[in-house]
Amino acid sequence: MEEERYEQTTACIRFDAELMAYLEGEGRPFVAAHARECEFCRVILADLEHIRTTARRLPLEEPSPAVWANIRAVLAREGRFREKVSDWRWVWQGQFLPHPAAVGALACLVILGSFLTMPPASLQREAFSDFVSSPRKTAAAPVPATREDSDLARMTEELELTYRANEKFLAPETKATYEKSLVSLDTSIRECQDSLRQEPDNTLAHDYLLTAYTRKAEVLASALEFGGR
Amino acid sequence: MKPQKSAAPKAASEIQLIARAQQGNEEAFAALFEAHKRRVYSLCLRMTENTAEAEDLTQEAFLQLFRKISTFRGESAFSTWLHRLAVNVVLMRLRKKGLQQVSLDDVDTSQDEPVKRDYGDDDRRLTRSVDRIGLERAIAELPQGYRTVFVLHDIEGYEHNEIAEIMQCSVGNSKSQLHKARMRLREWLRQKQSKEPSGATVPMDQALGER
To answer: Is A98 helix (H, G, I), strand (E, B) or coil?
Structure first.
């Protein structure tokens, strides 16, 4: 018996020594043969093969919408977009389409937008403003200095309208967090706009304004994504 | 890296997207991001085990890609180019953080001891208990160097010669580290299994919530 036990241990040691090469696809027939005979080594081989198989099937993870928002903002700032698309297109690309709440809200907004463009515009806009705004409505009066500012301001405004139409889907504490961020960002936007009114060439204020708009768009996108789940 | 299965039309449309992105078309940039974001983000996440850092690295990788896209001439597959770039961005960040574990040249003898054989029962194979959540957790427990090689080889499909080039180590070293990584994963999962009641599994939402 002792002789048999010693022989088995030696074989297991050889199994250990050749296991790595076997798993790398090298021809090591001893490993498979020994695994058939030795229950201990058979389990080791099965475990490692299972780990390898499971690893290959791990699903891919999804980054938050803020990642593209950041990339887009940086690329826009660097002037890499020579052929622009409408401000709505990027919103639709994969981020909000899967979420019925956001899509439904956007559809309603399109219908409402059409309605509001009919005269008497001033009266209806006031009614619409009452409809979409709450006491915490945070939109700052846009005073765009450049076309880029104007685009960002419009995009942010559109996002905010969508957000207002969907905010009821957010849990109160989540909504409070987003509101706090939005109020803070609107304060920054107003301060930058005030500075730019007094000094239109103030580049620092302009940069801060762009950053504030970008961050606000990210917060709104994140809120919409969260609310759409 | 093993080529990904992709239909010819998909490749053709990607070539068109790249050409449009090279002309500064915003929609093309967005579409390229959309097509590759999950793979790049997953790579960054599994190598760092930190969602905020992974998003930051994803952003950095795509920004580098888009800034260089005018130089892409199609000598290699676009996805290969992008993922190699992402790996380099992650490794650069890890090295900047001073994580010496990223180097594979450090000799680690902790796994040179004989393989434990106290689980001779076929019924106690890991196949019963290892799901993707369990494996993700185990991967997160690996030292950075082991994790990097395991992620690159067993998840991302890089070959050892590519890993050796990326990590600036020998092919043998890459193979050895991978084997040790797998053995350490097995050991971790075994310990986990022995602590849990037979057949018990962690609820998926609970496991996900811990990330």
So the answer is: coil
* CATH top class, domain B102-209: mainly alpha
pLDDT of res. A164: 86
CA A1 to chain centre: 64
pLDDT tens for chain A, 229 residues long, are: 444 444 557 888 899 899 999 998 888 899 999 999 888 888 889 989 989 999 998 999 999 999 999 999 999 999 888 866 554 444 444 444 445 555 555 554 554 454 444 444 443 333 333 333 333 344 444 455 566 677 778 888 888 888 888 887 777 767 777 787 788 788 778 877 887 887 787 776 777 788 778 878 877 877 777 665 4
Shortest distance between the Cα of A11 and any Cα of chain B, in A, equals 13
Q: Considering Cα of B143, then B148, then B149, then B150, what sign does the dihedral take?
A: positive
Question: Are A50 and B127 in contact (CB < 8 Å)?
Answer: yes
Structure tokens at A214: 């970008």
Strand, coil or helix: B15: helix
Q: Give the fold, CATH level 3, of B8-98.
A: Rna Polymerase Sigma Factor; Chain: A (1.10.1740)
The Cβ-side half-sphere exposure at A192, using a 13 Å CA radius, reads 25
Burial group, residue B121, by CB count within 10 angstroms (0-12, 13-18, 19+): exposed
- The percentage of chain B sitting over the pLDDT mark of 90, rounded to a whole number, equals 55
Smallest Cβ distance to B130: which of A16, A44, A51? A51
ipTM of the complex: 0.78
Domains of chain B, residue spans? 8-98, 102-209
Select from B115, B131, B154 the Cβ nearest to the Cβ of A44. B115
Least CB-CB distance to A50: which of B46, B130, B175? B130
CA angle B120, B121, B122 (to 5 degrees): 115
N- to C-terminal Cα separation, chain B: 28
Token pair for residue B69? 């896209």
3 state DSSP class of A83: strand
| Among the ranges given (A97-106, A163-172, B41-50, B180-189), the one the predictor scored with the smallest mean pLDDT | A97-106
Can you tell me the distance from the alpha carbon of A169 to that of A176, in angstroms, rounded to the nearest whole number? 12
B71, amino acid identity:
T
Query: Which amino acid, one-letter code, is at A35?
Result: A
Cβ burial of B77 (10 Å; 0-12, 13-18, 19+) is: middle
* Between A142 and B61, the higher pLDDT residue: B61
The amino acid at residue A58 is L
Q: Identify the residue whose tokens are 């690996």.
A: B142
